[in-house]
Amino acid sequence: MTKRLIRALSLFSATLALWGGIVARGDDAWKPQGKLLTKFAADVRPESPLPEYPRPQMVRGQWTNLNGLWDYAIAPRGAERPESFAGKILVPFCIESALSGVARSVGPENELWYRRTFSVEPLGSNRLLLHFGAVDWQATVWVNGRKVGEHRGGYDPFSFDITDALRAEGPQELVVKAWDPTDKGFQPRGKQVRNPHGIWYTSVTGIWQTVWVEKVPAAAISGLTITPDVDNQCVRVTVAAAGKGAEQGQVELTALAAGAEVGVARGKPDQPIELKIPQPRLWSPDDPFLYDLKVRLISGETADEVASYFGMRKIEVHKDEAGLNRLFLNGRALFHIGPLDQGFWPDGLYTAPTDEALKFDVEITRKMGFNMARKHVKVEPARWYYWCDKLGLMVWQDMPSGNNGGDEGRANFRREWKAVIDALRNYPSIVMWVPFNEGWGQHNTEEITQWTKQYDPTRLVNNASGWTDAGVGDVHDIHAYPGPAMPKLEENRAVVLGEFGGLGLVVRGHLWQEDKNWGYRSFADAAELENAYEGLMLLLHPLIGKGLAAAVYTQTTDVEIEVNGLLTYDRAVMKIPPQRLAEMHAVLHQPPPKLKTLLPNAQEGKHTWRYTTAEPGKSWTQPDFDDKGWAEGVGGFGTAGTPGAIVGTEWKTERIWLRREFEFDSRPLGRLYVTIHHDEDAEVYLNGQRIADVKGFTTDYAAVPTRDAQKLLRKGRNVLAVCCRQTKGGQYIDAGLAEVAAEKK
């Protein structure tokens, strides 16, 4: 963006009353009500929380932020407006949050009432618009006792023209009533529940994004649809207009690059206008270049003007040189690697304490070497996407899930899914829409996927992330914990890993609850966590060579009792240094390693082990252990029907111990890998030393990296020893050894 637009945004953000004497109220009777706060909470000012202009792609100069301390009351649903209010609440933080100053739940049987006043000078022929970034879930709004509108939808912005409800002079009263049934209703709600537990989090009720008013001409710009066309070196802009005489107006568009004008076009409102961008500089994570866009609507003797921006980029699925479907950005294959991003905060819940906090999450994600984030069943305020655009973070955008049963639930879903796309479609960072997650509220998948693709053909559509693929859309997405894994290759769709990992680490002093925490896999310290994470990345790398097009690690931060974040919930502790993560992720964009077999597994050839299903004693892993009393069998060991198993010897007990002797005539030059298929937990020993400890199960052979294990190999006789434990379902164990040749320096 140009310095001029950035400077303008900063000026707009810093001004609470930029025109006409609108007065915001302040009050010192506020303090956070929670124990776990981010460092950003100290920067929250009750007189001006989140003062930035909230809509970066449609910026006006004459506006006033109405965030601050409002009166609030909780009343039974259906009751009349309260005669008195209970106290003060800091808007835009939801009432359940620490930063609201209240930290109370509301529940579906009650409604939350808000009240505040403001002042405004006479408008003349202009109009005054009241904007809400988001209110969860149903909002009814009155100005001076006159109902000005109602809105349903917890994740999309809405506005009302309140001009006709204003008094000629004196304070103007604004009252908002909010109702949210959370998980008792038929509406999108994401991970909010009334009884938080596990992967389900605290509910959010009422206003949770910025509220503001702005003065506009009688004929005004009401919306923008910005569609880049890289192939034709242009951007198409449709300017929606509203008000008296708007349809007769003239639109002027000016595109600028680093302050220099690069294109001008004119046209009519509500019609696509093509703006040529010669030799466009394309947006990508490595070069997140943004063009500034100046939009004017001229109607008679008046004009409305907004500042915006756009990025030129193209996302599609194509085959690479090997015939594998990949995600292509601007004509080049790019592996997408990023975290699952929940967007929750310990002090603000759905709402980040400050704009700097929003920026921090995006910035640290990029510093960790990720090039994308999957925004998980939540929609963020517009400024989060602005930072993704500016800092170069691609986004897979989920639709918040909910109870979509019956006509009511499905109608709510479709209405809000369209509203979410309308609100977010101009952000170049968003490259994929994800309407469903893991079957939560999933319905009419083929129809909704087709509609989404037709409504926005500039992006990919992931019909369902994890487990419930309907065979449509641009990708086949699976989840595997800890993984990694990949679906079978397809002719027309790319295959992606929508969730994996979930490695947990408890960091005392930075927990939502000290006595109740969990991760998909937990580790004792940061060193163990880093080793395990590196192991996942090393397992992931060969899958990319086989055709995996993207992977999403769970997750960016801890959230409430989940401790599987790369950061603690309060964003205070990086569990693995960002630079170390960036190094691991950089390797994923290099050609995958080619393994050379040193000791074949059952997939590579027939081989014989000695085995026992009785406890063998402590020294069973040692090379000199006497195993002549053990049985002899052909690998692998398990039961028929176990996915990916090549059963040479049936094994049906709870545990099995294996030993295999082999000769080796030289020491390997590169890193040693255990090539293993395990169902479930297994330990692998080489000449008495443990070289791998794997948990859970796989459905195919995987290469598990070892540290310095090549030094354990001896010239002559060696012993590989394996034990495996089975609990339920299929069972299988087999292993071999391979190496990756050392890189030449």
Descriptive labels:
elongated; 7 helices; about 750 residues; 6-stranded antiparallel β-sheet; mainly beta
How many strand units? Answer: 46
The major β-sheet equals:
8 strands, parallel
Helix/strand-derived class? mainly beta
Give the proportion of residues in helices: 10-25%
Strand order of the largest sheet: 29-28-27-26-25-34-31-30
Total DSSP helices: 7
Query: Residue ranges: pLDDT <50 for 5 or more in a row?
Result: 1-27
What fraction strand?
35-45%
Distance between the termini: 41 Å
Mean pLDDT: 93
Structure description:
The chain is mostly beta strands and 745 residues long. It has 7 helices and 46 strands. Helix 2 runs parallel beside helix 3 and helix 6 runs parallel beside helix 7 (578-587). It is elongated. The two termini are 41 Å apart. 49% of the residues are buried.
How are the SSEs placed, and which strands pair?
Blueprint (H helix, E strand, L loop, with lengths): L2 H12 L48 E3 L2 E9 L10 E5 L18 E9 L8 E6 L2 E2 L1 E6 L2 E7 L5 E4 L10 E8 L12 E2 L7 E2 L3 E2 L3 E6 L3 E10 L4 E9 L7 E8 L2 E8 L4 E5 L14 E9 L2 E9 L4 E5 L5 E5 L2 E2 L2 E6 L13 H13 L4 E4 L6 H10 L2 E5 L7 H19 L5 E5 L10 H11 L4 E2 L13 E6 L13 E8 L1 E3 L15 E3 L2 H21 L1 E7 L23 H10 L7 E5 L8 E5 L18 E4 L2 E2 L10 E2 L4 E10 L6 E9 L2 E5 L2 E6 L7 E4 L10 E10 L6 E9 L5
Parallel strand pairs: 11-12, 25-26, 25-34, 26-27, 27-28, 28-29, 30-31, 31-34, 32-33, 38-39
Antiparallel strand pairs: 1-14, 2-3, 2-4, 4-10, 5-9, 5-14, 6-13, 7-8, 7-10, 15-16, 16-19, 17-18, 17-20, 20-21, 22-23, 23-24, 35-46, 36-37, 36-40, 38-46, 40-45, 41-44, 41-46, 42-43, 42-45
